[in-house]
């Protein structure tokens, strides 16, 4: 049995969704399919919270738009009147509950983390029901099961929950496995689970990938397939490097590093559950289902060079906390990090010297992080510097630490491109070398490195570096 995840990028437009259903009818029988919300619906649900908070008169229009969007798709996909009416009844029940939640939000005058999670989870519920009824109309047996009904148990953290695999597996044996059959497609909404106390808790934006990995691990699936609108992981962003090539096989470590850089293929946490069970992940393109795609397993295939990809992100901001004798002052790093955490901000990475602590944050958190540190009293620093014009680049591949000369070739390529490098990190990850460059030099840098490790090596017919073990 396989677990298949269908992302929101694939559930965009009536014709595209119809193609997805064609694929599911052929490849989905006997499998469990974890689905995202239809494209754009989660954003509509979240925007609806703000509108409901401003004025309860906005709520009927919010509900009407959600109903119309789903019924427009349903009328195209569900030709059978009885099935279409059955979906309409299910949708109406869910929308009635959602409407009450919006009114409750307006009454309390607060968008609490609990309320945000339960409202934002409705998109996946709508999607799973829609696809199940549409597939049944095509003559395929299909059912959908909601995560909080089948016992996908989480630790209860709103907005960033973690699944409790052992408890979830126990509940799945009772509530999910009995409906899995060779002639049946089972849909499960992604993105959320339920705490032991019964609260809906989400896994964060893009968390349906993680949901699918949890379902695969809890069911001991043979494999996890992620259906996307791309072929798989590439040697670079094709929008920046037109000659980027497909990576056919990656290790869990390599995929985790590339996901961290927002490669738009996997949610960064997807690797966690399946790695423990050694379940392979296959990336498949729904528009080109016969293309090989990328496969992620325990071991990376040996290649002629250690570098698999040149990844990057511009979603980065840096807070430089300048202070004398940082390395000799007990507790200063903890003090700074705790204040950032108290502000609800995630620290992506930390680089320290004797005179400066550099905190890497998401771009949107830079100002809030700066304000949080300014409230420290007494101030353990001399000044704080904000840097918002940097891009983070990584060369990714298992074996980087074993291959001599990798860093030298990388930085030589960057130097020849006349780009200055800042804040190098090499060693904490066995599969990645990180560094920062000015944002306006990003494309130049990525192309210079990609040319060095891919095009030049191919042209010269070089095998793997001589010192690789």
From TrEMBL:
Q: In which pathway does it act?
A: Amino-acid biosynthesis; L-threonine biosynthesis; L-threonine from L-aspartate: step 1/5; Amino-acid biosynthesis; L-methionine biosynthesis via de novo pathway; L-homoserine from L-aspartate: step 1/3; Amino-acid biosynthesis; L-lysine biosynthesis via DAP pathway; (S)-tetrahydrodipicolinate from L-aspartate: step 1/4
GO CC, sorted alphabetically, is: cytosol
Binding residues annotated for substrate, in chain numbering:
124
As its record notes, the protein acts as a catalyst of:
L-aspartate + ATP = 4-phospho-L-aspartate + ADP
GO BP, sorted A to Z:
homoserine biosynthetic process; lysine biosynthetic process via diaminopimelate; threonine biosynthetic process
Using the record's annotation, list all stretches that form the Aspartate/glutamate/uridylate kinase domain. Answer: 2-285
Cross-referenced PANTHER family: ASPARTATE KINASE (PTHR21499), ASPARTOKINASE (PTHR21499:SF59)
Q: What is this protein called?
A: Aspartokinase
């Amino acid at each position: 049995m396989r677990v298949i995840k269908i992302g929101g990028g694939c559930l965009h437009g009536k014709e595209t969704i119809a193609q997805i259903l064609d694929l599911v009818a052929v490849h989905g029988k006997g499998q469990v399919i974890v689905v995202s919300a239809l494209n754009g619906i989660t954003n509509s649900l979240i925007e609806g919270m703000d509108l409901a908070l401003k004025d309860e008169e906005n709520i009927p229009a919010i509900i009407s738009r959600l109903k119309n969007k789903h019924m427009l798709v349903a009328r195209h996909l569900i030709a059978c009147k009885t099935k279409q009416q059955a979906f309409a009844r299910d949708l109406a029940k869910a929308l009635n509950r959602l409407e009450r939640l919006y009114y409750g939000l307006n009454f309390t005058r607060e968008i609490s983390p609990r309320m945000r999670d339960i409202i934002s989870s409705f998109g996946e519920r709508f999607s799973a029901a829609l696809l199940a009824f549409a597939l049944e109309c095509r003559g395929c047996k299909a059912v959908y099961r909601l995560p909080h009904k089948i016992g996908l148990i989480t630790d209860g953290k709103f907005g960033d929950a973690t699944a409790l695999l052992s408890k979830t597996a126990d509940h799945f044996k009772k509530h999910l496995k009995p409906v899995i059959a060779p002639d049946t497609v089972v849909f499960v909404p992604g993105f959320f689970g339920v705490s032991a106390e019964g609260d809906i808790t989400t896994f964060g934006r893009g968390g349906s990938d993680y949901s699918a990995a949890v379902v695969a691990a809890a069911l001991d699936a043979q494999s996890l397939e992620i259906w996307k609108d791309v072929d798989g992981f590439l040697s670079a962003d094709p929008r920046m490097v037109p000659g980027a090539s497909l990576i056919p096989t990656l290790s869990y470590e390599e995929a985790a590093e590339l996901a961290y850089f927002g490669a738009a293929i996997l949610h960064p946490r997807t690797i966690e559950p399946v790695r423990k069970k050694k379940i392979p992940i296959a990336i498949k393109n729904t528009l080109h289902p016969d293309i090989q795609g990328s496969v992620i397993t325990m071991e990376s295939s040996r290649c002629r060079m250690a570098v698999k990809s040149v990844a990057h992100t511009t979603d980065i901001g840096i807070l430089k906390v300048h202070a004398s004798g940082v390395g000799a002052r007990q507790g200063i790093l903890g003090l700074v990090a705790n204040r950032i955490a108290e502000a609800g901000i995630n620290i992506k990475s930390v680089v320290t010297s004797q005179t400066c602590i550099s905190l890497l944050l998401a771009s949107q958190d830079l100002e809030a992080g700066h304000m949080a540190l300014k409230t420290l009293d007494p101030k353990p620093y001399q000044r704080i510097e904000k840097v918002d014009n940097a891009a983070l680049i990584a060369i990714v591949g298992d074996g980087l630490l074993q291959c001599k000369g990798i860093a030298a070739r990388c930085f030589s390529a960057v130097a020849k491109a006349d780009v200055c490098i800042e804040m190098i990190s090499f060693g904490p990850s066995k599969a990645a070398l990180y560094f920062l460059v000015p944002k306006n030099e990003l494309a130049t840098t990525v192309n210079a490195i990609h040319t060095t490790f891919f095009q030049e090596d191919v042209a010269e017919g070089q095998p793997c570096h001589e010192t690789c073990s």
